[in-house]
Amino acid sequence: MSSSAAIDVLGELLVIHFRSFPQYLAATHAWMERSEDEAVEVIRNIVADQQTYCTRLADMIQRRGGRIDQGDFPMDYTDTHDLGLDFIIGKLLREQKRDLELIENCRSRLAADVPGTVLAEEALGAAQAHLDALEELESSRMATS
């Protein structure tokens, strides 16, 4: 894989993390800062993990001479401002499953780039852990409602 192709795939990984639905919630929903709900704590943990991967991916891209493009949030995220937390959790699950597939695709395309593959595999493992946490959260909320 050429260096420029690897940089492009790393850039895709960066946008997946930087413009994820949890990142959108943290950036635009003021209740995220004040709430002590278990669901919000799960989201905060996902946001923190994703920010760590954003930093690592941006560093790798810059070390290789690439340009950082943070992308834009998808427009359909703007429809979530007045929705309840239970609906948001459902959307988080759907988006996390989609992100997991996208990260897996990036990982497979980085197969010839060992450092890129290692970072993508770590990101994939974290994304799976995030999905597991969201599924557990949804189950516990359903059991108590």
Strand and helix layout:
Blueprint: H1 3-18, H2 21-28, H3 31-34, H4 38-63, H5 85-109, H6 114-144
- How many domains is the backbone divided into? 1
Q: How many runs of DSSP E, i.e. beta strands? A: 0
CATH level-four homologous superfamily name? Ferritin, core subunit, four-helix bundle
Ranges with pLDDT <50 over ≥5 residues?
none
Report mean pLDDT, rounded to a whole number: 93
- Any idea what the shape is? elongated
Helix fraction bin: over 70%
Q: Name the structural class.
A: mainly alpha
Largest sheet geometry: none
CATH architectural type: Up-down Bundle
How would you describe this protein?
The protein has 145 residues and is mainly alpha-helical. It has a single domain, classed as Up-down Bundle (Ferritin). The protein contains 6 helices and no strands. Helix 1 (3-18) runs antiparallel to helix 5 and helix 2 crosses helix 4 (38-63). The model has no long low-confidence stretch (mean pLDDT 93).
Précis, in short:
This protein has 145 residues and is an all-alpha fold. Helix content is 76%, strand content 0%. The radius of gyration is 16 Å and the shape is elongated.
Main attributes?
145 residues; mainly alpha; Ferritin
